[in-house]
Amino acid sequence: MRRSRLRILMPSIVDPGIRRGGAWTVTRGLVELFRRGPWNAELAILVPPEPLWRRLRQAACLAAAHWTGIPAKVRFLYRRAFRNQVRRKLDREHFDLLVINGSDLLWCLDEAPRQISTLAVVHNREALLYADQIAVALPRAGPLKRLLLADAARLLRYEIEGLRRVRGAIFLSESDAAELSRRIPGLDHLVLPPQFPDAPQRIAKAPSGWLDLGLLANFQWWPNGEGADWFVREIFSRLPGDVRLHLFGNRSLKTTAAHPRILAHGFVGDLREVWAACDWMVIPIRRGSGISVKAAESLYHGMPILSTSFGLRGLPFFEYPQIVRRETTEEWVSFLSSPESRTLCKKRLPLDVSRPFELEANIPRWSDFVSRLLPH
């Protein structure tokens, strides 16, 4: 029986009312999906408060992880006031569905009544992301690296055990879904890349005499910062003088040293300004987990993309000349120095590339999936 209205409690790692990075964008799309279509859902969204002393709490959580068994990344949000808030909400009100938005909050299952349906939103493979970050920060073996890797293994066990307990899961990434469905046979899941409620744009850049590259990201997120640093340091410095780089997004003003051909724009409220300013969007991500939400957003709006294969990992695969995959520094420099890079970008991608990310187009399969999770 399909219901006309749902009441949903969503503990969330991010506040969808804030516009900052990929997790915020994904969450806004999911909230809009619940509010549209057949469900007309009423959502209560709970977001844990940001600690005043972030670094100090991170260190304390890591120190406590060994003797509590709670991974440091999980413990960071596992705070008594927030746990009580989730518990009181579930005790005092009726909800049809508990949506756990982010694997770090899977402990909310311990507060859930037995009869409630549960859905986990897996933004990233947090344990793999953590291990990658350790490898980058600490390339050599040592006591601190061993401590952190033990915590990453603890986090992997926590993720798997938590996902075994939920009724269903949403994955943003095809590859994450394939790997975890092998580990957890029978897990009811849906692969749903980032969803965008606004109509896709196809905006051509006015001729300028420049080859304008755009890098749109939350630069506070370490895979983006590491990728941007690699691109600026090893690639951009070797490109012809008619190439400019535009940086858009959170902390983009603090990402690189001053350079006459690097323009940092900060946060941009209207992404049409980004598409109108750029010939190519560059995705120089080489490490991390999950998917690049900004790559998805660029594809949705038809932008030519130059990316590592990793930067497009987990997203629907398209084969078009304006989606260029290059791996090494030399390959990136060669392409951006070539006449090909100046001609391919004159055409935007066709509209069929937008469909996997178009919210309205995905409502039917979304509705079928949610129907399976609810009691009949």
User: Which homologous superfamily in CATH is the superfamily of the largest domain?
Assistant: Glycogen Phosphorylase B
Class by alpha and beta content: alpha/beta
Instruction: Provide the spatial order of strands within the biggest beta sheet.
Output: 2-1-3-4-5-6
Can you identify the CATH class of the largest domain?
A: Alpha Beta
What is the number of domains? Answer: 2
CATH architectural group of the largest domain: 3-Layer(aba) Sandwich
What CATH calls the topology of the largest domain is Rossmann fold
Number of helices: 13
* Structural Rg: 21 Å
Estimate the helix proportion, in percent. Answer: 25-40%
The SSE string, one letter per element, is EHEHHHEEHHEHEEHEEHEHEEHHH
Detailed description of the structure:
- Helices cover about 40% and strands about 15% of the residues.
- It has 13 helices and twelve strands.
Key attributes of the depicted protein:
six-stranded parallel beta sheet; Rossmann fold; 13 helices; 15% strand; alpha/beta; 376 residues
Task: Give the SSE map.
Elements: E1 7-11, H1 22-35, E2 42-46, H2 54-68, H3 72-75, H4 80-92, E3 97-101, E4 117-122, H5 126-137, H6 143-165, E5 168-171, H7 174-183, E6 188-191, E7 211-216, H8 222-235, E8 243-248, E9 262-266, H9 272-277, E10 280-283, H10 293-300, E11 305-307, E12 323-325, H11 329-336, H12 340-343, H13 359-373
Parallel strand pairs: 1-2, 1-3, 3-4, 4-5, 5-6, 7-8, 7-10, 8-9, 10-11, 11-12
In short:
By secondary structure, this protein is α/β, with parallel strands linked by helices. It has 13 helices and twelve strands.
